[in-house]
């Protein structure tokens, strides 16, 4: 692969915060990031129904640590109408008996559709429908795009999704300042106020700030204030160039809604100065140097448990700031071999996406071309303090919102959501708290700027019918949520078999077969390979990818409902 193409890949996405370019291997019948999302086909999902009943399930509510069941869930149109407790010894035929459609999920589990606070599409020239289907296949029913696509595409898909015209999660459209309008870059307070006013009347739900753009603290301050007046949400990636002007605690004082990633947190905890010392020759534009420097910040900060540590968290709590940790997207920093070798990559990662992930000084997020064991050890130390920060904030009542930043650094759409749940668990949240962090918590974060109550994110009467139906209890094993499932011993045969995966995802009342969605994605990968996309892949780096020698893990078979409803376990 030539560096010229890498440069083009990088340049192509600078405006939208994405990186996408049609590869030279593109074929007429292979979708790309630039193509419109195709309409929902006749065989893609069933419903919504006048009355749908899900029988005999145990329910993870998504808020308040509640687990209930067994119950029958009655859905009318796109709303949950009733949740009816049932006696495990009750007859199989029970009210209501006038449903248009029933799902026998006896002994299975339902949780709220996952809500992702930090998403993109289009990386590696992947079409939006590729991301949408992977998300739905993993029970993700709402995504907060930051940005999910260029403004016009995001608005178009947002509206089409609400009308059930495309196969997609609910889309919450956050845009970066200046996106979508024709007024130019945001380089003054006047333009900042004008763009927010424009955004509020043109389909934008919130603002995603970076710290390395033409705008700085004065413009950010104006935009946060104007967003608050107009019911728009705000989130910020505190890119290092902003540190002389702004860190996370200062953004919280301005009224910022969410701090996404780790940037800005530890800069608020420095013992002296506004930035920590860097190695000689450090250049922010050199991503390998940038990410090496990230992990060394903890050598210059106040430690966990110190008065300064507690004061920082207490101030963020008082200012009602949400933390969106996005642990999973940076896993390559602490274990590169692990993320390269994940067993879903061969079957479900597009070759163009794998090509984009190859190490390169030019492509964003491909910084690990000379990554060493010393770098990984440094990142493992950093992660321990980052875990502690998130855990401590949760313990004092701060809101943690689960997000994935997918499409970068081997972090594959949908699969990344389950990895993030596992990482939240590793940070000290309970399994139940982790699921709530990526359902009810994010839904509340999205609703707060408008002063509304969430309409999704929990399994309760009156809420949208956005649900994931699961054959196994995720509170006992989150790995059963991966589309490729997890390996279990069959005691009767002594064989290892794969079990798990979401069985059905219900989005806005439409029932999707999650296994079929995964099969659709596998077909997209096959089509791109058939069109010649593997020609650009470096064989020395592709052993575990879609163009390597492994066929990867397949899709576990569907599970049969249990003979009788089971009493829920909290795991």
Description:
Residues 545-571 are annotated as: Disordered. Keywords: Signal. It comes from Nonomuraea marmarensis. With 571 residues, the protein is an alpha/beta fold. Helix content is 30%, strand content 16%. It is built from 17 helices and 17 strands. Strands 1, 2, 3, 4, 5, 13, 16 and 17 form an 8-stranded mixed beta sheet that branches. Helix 4 packs parallel to helix 5 and helix 14 (415-426) packs across helix 15 (431-437).
Short synopsis of the structure:
This protein has helices at 3-12, 128-137, 151-162, 189-200, 217-230, 248-254, 287-295, 307-318, 331-334, 336-340, 345-348, 351-357, 373-395, 415-426, 431-437, 440-447, 514-530; strands spanning 49-60, 67-77, 79-85, 101-104, 109-112, 114-119, 140-145, 170-175, 206-210, 233-237, 258-260, 322-324, 467-470, 486-490, 495-499, 504-507, 510-513. The protein has 571 residues and is α/β, with parallel strands linked by helices. Helix 2 runs antiparallel to helix 17, helix 4 (189-200) packs parallel to helix 5 and helix 14 packs across helix 15 (431-437).
């Amino acid at each position: 692969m030539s560096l010229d193409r890498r440069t083009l890949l990088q340049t192509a996405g600078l405006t939208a915060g994405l990186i996408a370019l049609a590869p030279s291997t593109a074929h007429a019948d292979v979708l790309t990031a630039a193509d419109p999302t195709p309409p929902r086909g006749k065989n893609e999902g069933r419903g919504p129904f006048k009355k749908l009943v899900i029988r005999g399930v145990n329910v993870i509510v998504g808020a308040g640590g509640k687990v209930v069941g067994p119950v029958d869930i009655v859905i009318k149109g796109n709303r949950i109408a009733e949740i009816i407790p049932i006696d495990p010894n009750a007859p199989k035929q029970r009210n209501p008996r006038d449903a248009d459609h029933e799902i026998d999920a006896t002994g299975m589990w339902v949780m709220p559709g996952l809500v992702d606070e930090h998403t993109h599409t289009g990386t590696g020239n992947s079409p939006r429908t590729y991301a949408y289907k992977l998300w739905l296949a993993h029970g993700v029913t709402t995504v907060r795009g930051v940005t999910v696509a260029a403004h016009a595409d995001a608005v178009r898909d947002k509206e089409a999704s609400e009308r059930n015209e495309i196969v997609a999660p609910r889309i919450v459209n956050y845009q970066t300042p200046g996106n979508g309008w024709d007024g130019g870059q945001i380089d003054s307070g006047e333009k900042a106020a004008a763009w927010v006013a424009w955004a509020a009347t043109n389909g934008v739900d919130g603002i995603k700030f970076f710290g390395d753009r033409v705008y700085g603290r004065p413009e950010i301050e104006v935009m946060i204030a104007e967003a608050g007046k107009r019911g728009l949400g705000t989130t910020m990636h505190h890119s290092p160039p902003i540190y002389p002007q702004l860190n996370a605690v200062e953004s919280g004082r301005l009224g910022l809604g969410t701090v996404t990633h780790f940037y800005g947190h530890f800069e608020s905890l420095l013992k002296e100065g506004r930035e920590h010392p860097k190695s000689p020759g450090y250049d922010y534009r050199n991503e390998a140097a940038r990410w090496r420097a990230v992990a060394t910040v903890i050598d210059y900060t106040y430690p966990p448990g110190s008065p300064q540590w507690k004061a920082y968290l207490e101030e963020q709590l008082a200012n009602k700031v949400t933390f969106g940790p996005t642990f999973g997207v940076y896993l390559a920093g602490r274990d590169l071999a692990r993320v390269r070798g994940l067993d879903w990559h061969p079957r479900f990662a597009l070759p163009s996406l794998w090509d984009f992930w190859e190490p390169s000084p030019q492509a964003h997020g491909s910084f690990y071309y000379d990554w060493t064991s010393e770098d990984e050890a440094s990142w493992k130390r950093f992660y321990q303090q980052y875990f502690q920060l998130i855990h401590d904030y949760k313990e004092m009542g701060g809101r943690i919102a689960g997000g994935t930043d997918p499409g970068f650094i081997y972090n594959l759409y949908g699969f990344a959501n389950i990895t993030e749940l596992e990482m939240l668990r590793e940070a000290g949240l309970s399994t139940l708290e982790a699921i709530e962090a990526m359902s009810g918590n994010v839904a509340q974060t999205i609703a707060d700027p408008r002063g509304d109550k969430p309409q999704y994110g929990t399994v309760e009467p009156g809420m949208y019918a956005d649900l994931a139906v699961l054959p196994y209890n995720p509170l006992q094993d989150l790995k059963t949520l991966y589309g490729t499932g997890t390996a279990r011993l069959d005691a009767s045969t002594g064989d290892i078999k794969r079990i798990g995966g979401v069985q059905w995802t219900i989005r806005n009342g439409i029932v999707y077969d999650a296994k079929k969605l995964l099969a659709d994605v596998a077909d997209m990968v096959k089509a791109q390979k058939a069109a010649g996309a593997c020609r650009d892949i470096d064989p020395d780096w592709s052993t575990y990818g879609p163009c390597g020698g492994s066929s990867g893990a397949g899709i576990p078979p569907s599970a049969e409902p249990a003979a009788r409803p089971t009493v829920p376990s909290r795991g």
